[in-house]
Amino acid sequence: MDILLKKLCETLRNLMRLPSVADLSGFLEGETAFMLALKNNGDKPNTPSVLSEQLNVTKGRITAIINSLSRKDMVKLEKIDGDRRKINVRLTDAGLKFIDAKLESINEFLGSFIERVGREKAENLIQLLDYTAKVMEDARVEGLKNAGGGAVN
């Protein structure tokens, strides 16, 4: 294995094992990501179908998250006027309080990170991560095309 490739793999593995990375990833998936989407969507319709597409997870997973958060009194379900089959999902006061506390915590952590590395390095890191995401997505799309994967989103 090429030394640079080995070092990249080792660095990524070490990064992914950090508890703070696990804390951050919670905002990208699962119940916290779901609640954050509800908060960010504001008064827009939050049907399970819309949330499934927005979060890129199956409708079955959305249903499981809704059921779990309903039991915890973090979300409430409202029927949509004119269509009794459709429901709108909203945060309860407890859900809003929970997600606001999570956001405050993560903002403090990221603010501290920026202070430690400095603004210039943080900006460089953001640019590099944006570029990395684009290169990886382009490689994924190209790989799917070459493998005969059909249509790619």
Please specify the SSE layout and strand pairing.
Blueprint (H helix, E strand, L loop, with lengths): L2 H14 L2 H7 L4 H12 L6 H8 L3 H13 L3 E6 L2 E9 L1 H25 L1 H28 L7
Antiparallel strand pairs: 1-2
Would you mind describing this structure in some detail?
The chain has 153 residues and is mainly alpha-helical. The protein has helices at residues 3-16, 19-25, 30-41, 48-55, 59-71, 93-117, 119-146; strands at 75-80, 83-91. The two termini are 33 Å apart.
Key features of this structure:
153 residues; two-stranded antiparallel ribbon; 2 strands
Task: Write the H/E string, N to C.
Answer: HHHHHEEHH
Strand order of the largest sheet: 1-2
Helix-strand category: mainly alpha
The radius of gyration is 19 Å
Head-to-tail CA distance between termini: 33 Å
